[in-house]
């Protein structure tokens, strides 16, 4: 029995840890070969080893704010594995502060990594996929991009922008066989979220009808759905994975 991504090649930014690594693990389990883009060289090496080594995974240092770096990342997938079938634009950072205290640099960095990074990845991947006549791009938004979060004018703006980017870009390439969709995770248990003060964590938990945080693998399952032929008639959509939070 072959997996849902048998024979396909996926690039995942921010792929050496957290949600990105969980997506890579799920994709490899479903038959894909993966190329991980990340700034952390040590974590890249460990992730490639954990995924099964050089036959199924490649790590590439990548700053997603640089179009040249992202181009090298997608080119590496084609050079090593022969195609680019799935692109997951997942890389992200937070620089939380109230608007009054947020610096211009805090704003610019978050917009650059999330929104420009997703645009760079979508643009570079779509250029390859349109020539192949098929491909799936998955952009990582956030429920913060739907409702807006205190202390996250930068992050919420970037994540809302990713929704607009996804919808606009999907219309440009749908007739070429390329699908572009987005995921909006809610509170997911990662190293980043677990570093929150306990009172903040508890206040967020109180908003979740299912009564628990999500796990990275639960985002990975939705990414697999959007990357595979299970979602073959879906493009420009945004899937909320929140446990019912902010319905």
TrEMBL record:
Pfam families: adh_short_C2. Signal peptide: none annotated. Residues 8-186 form the Ketoreductase domain. Transmembrane segments: none annotated. SUPFAM superfamilies: NAD(P)-binding Rossmann-fold domains (SSF51735). Belongs to the short-chain dehydrogenases/reductases (SDR) family. This is 3-oxoacyl-ACP reductase FabG. It comes from Gordonia caeni.
